Amino acid sequence: MPLVVPGIQSEGGKDIDTWTTKLMGKTLGDGHTETTFAKQDLPKEHRVLQPDTMFTQDFKPDRLNVHVDESGTVKNVRYG
């Protein structure tokens, strides 16, 4: 069961629908194509999380977390 704290939202966030639409199902690369999104166009505060990698559990509401699978395809996008 997730911890619920009033005023803090770990799912969603500002523009989450826009980022989800832009990134889901694409890989991250150097430029834009039909199947690739350019890394340099991600927000300044972001991190790319790969399966089985360690990452901090600190909460930063403005940080975009981009979860990718083993092949580098974006599977989930959220703030926190």
Which terms summarize this structure?
80 residues; mainly beta; Trypsin Inhibitor V, Chain A; three-stranded mixed sheet; two-stranded parallel ribbon; 10% helix; disordered N terminus; Prot_inh_I78; Proteinase inhibitor I78
Could you state the oligomeric state of the chains shown? single chain
How can the largest sheet be summarized? Answer: 3 strands, mixed
Helix content: 10-25%
Radius of gyration: 13 Å
**Count of helical regions:** 1
CATH topology: Trypsin Inhibitor V, Chain A
At the first level of CATH, the class is Alpha Beta
Shape: globular
- Extract low-pLDDT stretches: 1-10
Give the number of domains: 1
What's the count of strands?
5
The ordered string of helix (H) and strand (E) elements is HEEEEE
The largest beta-sheet arranges its strands as 3-4-5
Mean pLDDT rating? 87
Structure, described:
By secondary structure, the chain is mainly beta. It has one domain: 2-Layer Sandwich (Trypsin Inhibitor V, Chain A), CATH 3.30.10. Helices cover 10% and strands 26% of the residues. It has one helix at residues 16-23, and strands spanning 27-29, 36-38, 46-49, 64-68, 74-79. The chain has a 3-stranded mixed β-sheet, with helices on one face. Strand 4 (64-68) and strand 5 form a beta hairpin. The longest helix is centred in the N-terminal third of the chain and has 8 residues, at 16-23. The two termini are 17 Å apart.
